[in-house]
Design a protein that fits this description.
423 residues, alpha+beta, Rossmann fold, Phosphatase 2c, domain 1, 6-stranded antiparallel β-sheet, 5-stranded parallel β-sheet, rod-shaped, SpoIIE family protein phosphatase, coiled coil
Amino acid sequence: MLQVGSAEDNSQKVLGSIRHVLVVDDSRLQRRILASSLKKWGLEVIEADSGDEALRICAENPPDLVLSDWVMPGISGPDFCRAFRDLETDWYSYFILLTSKSEKNEVAQGLDAGADDFLIKPVSSDELRARISAGDRVLGMQRELSEKNRLIEKALEELKLAHDAIDKDLIQARKIQESLVPELSRNFGASRVSLLLEPCGHIGGDLVGMFSPGPGRLGFYSIDVSGHGITSAMMTARLGSYLSGSYPDQNLAMERRFNRFYSLRQPEEVARILNARLLADRGVEEYFTMAYGIVDLESGALRLVQAGHPHPLLLRRDGTTEFLGEGGVPIGLLPDVPYTQIETRLEPGDRVLMYSDGFTECRTENGDMLDEDGLLDIVRACDPDLQGRAFLDALYDKLSQRMSPEFGMEDDVSATLFEFNGL
């Protein structure tokens, strides 16, 4: 029986999370006594005289709070609580069992059934009010958490849609970037240029290429734009137009002579032009490294410029090797930088390998960078009979085998291989 006290007189405040209460008791009198106090506290009350009737009510309209007697005809209070918790609903209700049982094992049985709290009969008004207030705080926190989870799920869904859109754009961007390197291998007379381009993500900041203004003359390059991702890829798209093999009138490395044919500018001049062009573009903070060479396919004369790029590797036919260049300054960092040209002569069977720092700065199993000595090791580990793309593929495979599983591929990997065999 409910013990009437002062709480009924001074507790008129409407609770924040508990508004609707279901009172379940086979005693009509007990229901009315509980309902009278609850209504005075500003709560809406529904009554049920059995667990079966209460379940039907909860399935249609789950209450915020359930006050259920323990002993009832049909299903008991704990059985009703267990069945109530099994209802498929996202709505959590606070459940208080009313019982004359106070033994610990009885309390444990009620908790196992899913009850949140207990009240020992006869119930005092003050204690009932205090337990309901405690339940109100629990429900408030639970519903606040549910709302935050809902907002998080909504934000995650929006992020997923945005990510899917970005991913779709990046896939298309990769196709566009791949179009900048339409040919991965091309013969120029008896000589050949082969290209390797492996971005570490959808798109990258490396660019390799080749072009020829006419028989016997050839230009080839390897470029690495600072940073990664979209910004670097946009820069490679611009550089691809500056060094286009399809549109010689747009190629900064070529100049038209006598309105009849195109000739190749000297590598050091090309570096100066690109440096001035990049610095003139406002808002562009990126720079790039480059190795660019031109070759006379008749004489084997090779001229190179190295602008902060890894040293090109000269692989002689007799098995000797030599790293070319002295470093140089990346393009787009400083104005009026003097670039030094490297000159050498190739013999039939000689090869020149330009590569990005994705090779030399790749971290190996022990965490150290591969560096130039490691590059020489994987070059020598390749089958000496391999040529062109097959050689580059084998070189990349050897690099992958040396790559640290912990760090993986952290940078774009690219290379340009020129194999000289004359015209």
